[in-house]
Write a structure and sequence with these properties.
alpha+beta, Arc Repressor Mutant, subunit A, three-stranded antiparallel sheet, globular
């Protein structure tokens, strides 16, 4: 049983443990954006954004919908938005002494 759980947990926490992906998710807290808007706001190159968005989408952190020729990304409101809010509250309470 434990062996089967390792890979999904590793992918989940590995997805969270990346500053670029955290930046994308925090940006999407304000609402949906297309790749061009994400790249512009975060000063990120398109291939880098695409790679990170694909990882976020693979793990269900973001959802994408087709809007003509572009894909529009939004944060998974059911779970990930709540997780980010809980993490933020936890860090403010327990990790405030950490500098980063």
């Amino acid at each position: 049983m434990k062996q089967k759980l390792r890979h999904p947990y590793s992918r989940f926490f590995g997805t969270l443990a990346n500053q670029m992906r955290i930046d994308i998710m925090m940006l999407l807290l304000d609402g949906e954006k297309n790749a061009t808007q994400i790249c512009s706001a975060l000063k990120m190159k398109q291939p880098t954004a695409s790679k990170n968005l694909a990882r976020l989408e693979e793990c269900g952190f973001v959802k994408a919908r087709q809007n003509g020729r572009e894909r529009v990304y939004s944060l998974n409101k059911e779970t990930i938005r709540k997780i980010l809010m809980i993490m933020d509250r936890h860090m403010k309470q327990y990790c405030c002494h950490l500098k980063g």
